[in-house]
Structure formats: structure tokens, C-alpha cells
Amino acid sequence: MVYLSVIQTSARYLKRKEEPLETKYARKGSAVYSALAATKLHPSADTLYRDLQKVYPNISRTTVYANLTKLREEGSVICVGVVDGRERYDANTRPHPHFICEQCGTVLDVKGLPEPPSLDRQAEVTNPIKVSYHELIFRGLCGECAGITQSTK
Fold it and tell me: What is this structure's pTM?
């Protein structure tokens, strides 16, 4: 029985090995993107790797990093900032502000702020620059680290 299991596993492995290389990379890239899009936690590549390894035990850390780089270059994901030496990622590429907790490293989307479409234009008028985009990142203590609850506001 064990032998049969090994043969079946080997057959599945060989079928995958025969896939075009592009298909393998597309499948893993899709898995990386899907995992990132499914969370609001703005994970690092290492966090994504640990999460993906539960579903794809054969995925490598290098594969996750390479796919994040590719997704970032094509504009499908953005780097929100660096926390504790690790880039943090977001699949929401629309312009929106973020908050980074200086104590625990949590990265949050900041809600409730007006969209400042004139900010780019204002920067161009007052400086000799041409703005492509801007990023707005707040830093401080998150509600949990600061001991702030909805009822204490």
C-alpha cells in the first residue's frame, strides 16, 4: 500500500514537472497574489511564505520573493513601507494612506480621510517638480499599543 502511494505521488510530481515552466510560475504567482489580496494585514514576504507553505508545502521563500518582485514591477502590488527591516505589501494599489505602529509593527489602512486630489498639483505649483504619485504614511502607536478603544475616544 505504501508503495502504491509513492507511485501515485511520483506520477503527480512527474505530471507537474512536464508542465511548461510559465504555468508553474503563473500558478505560484497567482497563489502569492491571492494570499496577499485576501488579507488586510500588509504582510512581509516572510509572513506570506509561512502562510503559503501551509497550503503549498513545496513553495520556497525565493519563489515568494521573486513573485512579489514581479507583481510589484507590474503594478499589481505595492510596498507600503519597511517595518523592522522587512518590506510590507498591499494588494490594494489604489492611493490610500497607511499607519505604521512604531511599537508592534502593525500596518493599517487609514480610513475616513478625504482624497486630496489637489495635493499633487499643489506640490507642483509650489515646487519645481512633476509628481507621478504620492504616499501618505502616519506613524505612532496603534490603538492596542496606546490603550485606545472605541469607547475611550
Answer: 0.75
